[in-house]
Amino acid sequence: MRISVVMAGLNGAMAVALGAFAAHGMAGSEMDYARGLVEKGAHYQLVHAVALAAIAGLVHHVPDEKFLRIAAYAMLVGIIFFCGSLYAIAFGGISAFGAVAPIGGFAFIGGWLLLAAAGYRRFG
């Protein structure tokens, strides 16, 4: 689960940096749409970075950690596809990436459901 901790730290730092850039570096009404996308991406990225850290901390308490490992990877895929697509649209104007965002959203949902399944298996 070392990768989960590393990815949690890197994604957390990136989310904070992008959120700060959106708030301070994307001023002006012509940037409102792009700033909103970056803020949304940073928010989801930060929430899921914290989830990755929590998952890494749970590994020692769950006998069969398979669900936790898959949950961590699903959340990482969600960050790449959902947040990455928002950033691509905001910074590159590549609106075609909007079609990729739902893949990331489904990965986020799957990650949370796998986390729930791991908890049920351990504490149910």
List the helices and strands and how they pair.
Elements: H1 2-25, H2 32-58, H3 66-92, H4 101-123
Helix pairs in contact: 1-2, 2-3, 3-4
Approximate strand percentage: under 5%
Task: Figure out the total of helices.
Answer: 4
Helical/strand content category: mainly alpha
Helical fraction equals over 70%
Largest sheet: none
How many strand elements?
0
Could you give the distance between the termini?
Answer: 23 Å
Tell me the Rg in angstroms: 16 Å
What is the string of helix and strand elements? HHHH
Query: How many separate structural domains?
Result: 1
Tell me, briefly, the overall form: elongated
Stretches where pLDDT is under 50 for at least 5 consecutive residues are none
- Quaternary class: single chain
Average pLDDT across residues?
Answer: 93
Task: Please tell me about this protein's structure.
By secondary structure, the protein is an all-alpha fold. It has one domain (2-123). It is 81% helix and 0% strand. It contains four helices and no strands. The chain has helices at residues 2-25, 32-58, 66-92, 101-123. Helix 1 (2-25) packs antiparallel against helix 2 (32-58), helix 2 packs antiparallel against helix 3 and helix 3 packs antiparallel against helix 4 (101-123). The protein is elongated, with a radius of gyration of 16 Å. It starts with a helix and ends with a helix. It is a multi-pass membrane protein. The chain crosses the membrane at residues 46-63, 70-90, 96-120. It comes from Thalassospira indica. Keywords: Membrane, Signal, Transmembrane, Transmembrane helix.
